[in-house]
Batch of 2 targets.
Target 1
Amino acid sequence: LNAKLVQAERLAAVGQLAAGAAHEINNPLAIIYARTQLLEHKETDEKKKRDFQQMLAQIERITSILNNLMDFARPAPPRIEKTSLNDVVTRATALVQGGLGKQGIRLETALDPNLSPILGDANQLEQVLLNLLINAEHAVAERIASQGSAATAGIIRVATRLGSAGRGAVLTVTDNGVGISKDNLSKIFDPFFTTKEEGKGTGLGLSTSYGIVTGHNGDLRYDSTPGRGTTATVLLPLAVPTGTPRSTPAGEADPQAI
Ligand code: ADP
């Protein structure tokens, strides 16, 4: 697997674990602080009072460390700028192409050459696309493995186009992999939800991707038929919404209108 993706997933995993742990520790710590404060107030013995004050100072220190940890774990806000979605696709597909080829999985791209620029953070969107592609790869590889030599050829298709109302960009990643059951479909965006075997999945790829896409005022949707395949659809706002005067502030692109 390429190092960039592994690194991105690992960072996301560490960050989410840290944030989760920090959050859990904060509550009991607040109770300990309040009780200690009460004891310190009531204490008349000067020496014991100083001991309680020291305890309070140390709890405050832990609290500030936890707050720093939670700040660090929070994903960076996207650096939104005029971006070519097709370029993002080209970079991401180049990273997975070799690995797909080795497994006999065909990668097809159908990029709309006239697609106007979107508003987005190219690095974050590349990470999203990598997550979608790697998931598609796993799903196709799993189906091929379960069908043996009788398997139909594995295909992953990546396409970009203008949304139907002409106001946003649409990116789809379609695979003919194992598909997702109706039950699982409602859980795929949950942090740590994974059907992959121990050590192979973190269950963070799609929760992170969903966070990134909605952070762009976009949307991420899944359609799947178990045994037939899956389509992931990413909707993103255009830098200049078509059909709207050019003077419209770019930030007002409305993905709901796609
Ligand atoms: P991970 O890949 O580490 O398991 P993700 O959040 O990326 O975590 O995905 C969660 C789960 O969603 C996967 O374990 C898999 O069950 C399911 N999934 C995601 N994409 C696909 C796909 N294209 N085909 C089939 N299942 C998928």
Note: The first strand starts at residue 81 and ends at 83.
Target 2
Amino acid sequence: NQEILLVSRPKGLPHEDNFSILDTSIPTIKEGEVLVRSLYVSVDPYMRGRMSDKKSYVPPYALHEVIIGGVVGEVIETKADHLNVGDVVVGYLGWRKYNAVEANQVTKIDPTLAPISTALGVLGMPGLTAYFGLLDIGQPKQGETVVISGAAGAVGMIVGQIAKIKGCRVVGIAGSDTKVDYLIKELGFDVAINYKTTENMKKALAEACPNGIDVYFDNVGGDISDAVLSLINKGARIPLCGQISLYNLEKADIGPRAQTALLINSALMKGFIVGDYSQRFNEGLLQLSQWVKEGKIKYAENIVEGFENIPKAFLGLFKGENLGKQLVKVAEW
Ligand code: NDP
């Protein structure tokens, strides 16, 4: 067996030296547990927060302990009544090749409905984040303009497509021409803007949004959000989902403050954590699977191969290496 530990807390941008791979033995399972062989491991931006020891909505990872995150795996041994060998499950497990885990800590997935990797993406946590953040907080209405930052990522690309289903004008912001092309040509975004090559974001956004901005789904914060918020309409709604442009800053970021824009436009900005909606996950998954089945929602995955490449794949999130959901394929199924 192998596992990946956090051995030092990143300062600024995380580095491969913050992690270490340890050889261990395959655990033996107790009554009520299953042994899960990892197939796909998810790397997610929120993990950066858990690598610091600042207060957040989840406790920090402990130093010299295995990192926990989303994993899809196969049950290869069972001492639990309701899980059989061969079942495919998803859960928050260690960055390990093999995890011994209580059966009620994982959820069985049906591999005949969709590729198993989607349980970590469009039909998992990121998809649900897009669904509830946009529909519950953003409340997009037919004909309105929805702007999404981090638009070519796991969450962002689902947000944009749901907004299209709801009949909105959809404008995405992303960090490469390939991503921008994908959003427009493959996913039907009305406009997409490469923030890395656009000198004046406010001007580009104003051109892209002739009727102003009614919903801003914020994945990144910082300068991009300042530009968007300067163009919001009266009664705008702003689901505050993520702030990835700030996660690696050593000092608090100071910029134009959004409060005035919110005040003069009677706008609503609301932070949320997908877990706030856990009672409604089934509803969200049912609707998302329906849309995927009907071809109304497409998804992309960026798959890196090899257990030892998990840290590298994680670091890639901060360089924008991924189009869609970043996953690591650890073993063949
Ligand atoms: P993504 O798949 O979007 O991956 C991260 C992307 O962020 C990169 O591909 C990169 O794309 C972009 N990025 C990286 N650094 C910067 C930067 N400095 N400025 C602007 N963009 C940057 O990740 P997810 O879809 O999983 O997550 C998106 C956001 O949603 C994150 O902020 C995450 O923390 C948040 N989130 C919140 C949840 C909640 O419950 N509230 C749940 C899940 C995610 P590019 O090439 O465009 O720069």
Note: The CA atoms of residues 125 and 274 lie 7 Å apart.
